[in-house]
Structures are given as C-alpha cells and as structure tokens.
Specification:
Elements (H helix, E strand, L loop, with lengths): L5 E4 L1 H9 L2 H16 L7 E2 L6 E6 L2 E8 L2 E7 L1
Parallel strand pairs: 1-5
Antiparallel strand pairs: 2-3, 3-4, 4-5
C-alpha cells in the first residue's frame, strides 16, 4: 500500500533525527508514516500565521512540518 503523501526531510531535520537515540528515531518514523496517510490528524496543531505549517509532539520531540499538495516536508525536530 502506498501513502497518499510523499514525505521529505529537510537537511536540518534529517541531521536532528540522526542525533536522536534509536528508540526516539523509531517513534518519529512511526509518526511520519502515520502523517503520510493523514497529515492533519486530530490533535495536530496548526501553526497560526503560517500557511500549511503543523506541529506534532512525540516523546518530548516536536516535529514541525509543512503540507503542500501531496507532499509533506519535515522542517524541524526539536
């Protein structure tokens, strides 16, 4: 089964993901796979004032991502 949304990581987000422990990396990857199916799940926080930007939190790591057409760009993990 293919996901309706293509997910890309910005270079900064990819570096930040690699700096996390393996347990956190696995949880982030599971969240990203879920977002690829539904990038605007209940509880996702829309970042006010910026079009298409959302925030999700898992295990004390916040993901900031942008949804455009059929693509999700992960911008930042902090």
């Amino acid at each position: 089964m293919t996901s309706p949304y293509n997910v890309r990581f910005s270079p900064a987000a990819h570096r930040q993901l690699m700096d996390l422990g393996s347990k956190q990396q696995k949880m982030i990857i599971r969240l990203v796979e879920t977002l690829a199916v539904n990038p605007r799940p209940p509880g996702a926080k829309k970042i006010e004032g910026l079009t298409g930007l959302y925030s999700e939190e898992v295990e004390q790591v916040r993901l900031i991502y942008k949804v455009e057409d059929q693509e999700i760009l992960l911008l930042l993990l902090k």
